[in-house]
Amino acid sequence: MTTLLPTVEGAADDELAEALRFCARGERAGLQLLYDRLAPKMTGVALRMLRRRDLADEVVHDTFLRIWEKAGSFDPARGKPTSWAFAILRNTALNLLRGEGRMELVGDFEAIEPASEEADAETLVMALSEASALRRCLDRLEPARRRAILLAYMRGLTHGELAGRLGVPLGTAKAWIRRSLLTLRECMT
């Protein structure tokens, strides 16, 4: 695990995938590398979702525990290691929000906008590799549903936040996510 510095585009993903393989074998150096590379960004996302540092730190900690436990289930053919790890973070944060009745913690939508220029859902799709199965499947969704999925899973928006952002009823936002996930699951298999 001494030569884990990326040298070319995409090497960072290879490095993180290798770190996950180390975790799956019980090698702590893999978890340390993942933590060093991902923890700062994860903390930022968790803070935007939870709006409290103590909760964000708790969620990031729990996320790395889950990454350690589930590293063997990561499949590089299904996506990038960062996407996999941030999906765990998002689910952990949402579980905390649901479980403790803290859905009101994220009141304004602008607070969770990313600092980067890639806020546009279509830009996020374009960032995926042309050959990516996920991109092909996302391209099959209606634009509004694709935007809802991307905002939910890449920006951490809840159903309520999606409804407000997209100007649709809560039930519609939930249905879009549920149906789109079924469509994506079917497409990916």
TrEMBL record:
One of its GO terms (molecular function) is DNA binding. Pfam families: Sigma70_r2, Sigma70_r4_2. Residues 133-183 form the RNA polymerase sigma factor 70 region 4 type domain. Residues 34-102 form the RNA polymerase sigma-70 region domain. Keywords: Sigma factor, Transcription, Transcription regulation. One of its GO terms (biological process) is DNA-templated transcription initiation. Belongs to the sigma-70 factor family. ECF subfamily. NCBIfam families: sigma70-ECF. This is RNA polymerase sigma-70 factor, ECF subfamily. It comes from Ancylobacter rudongensis.
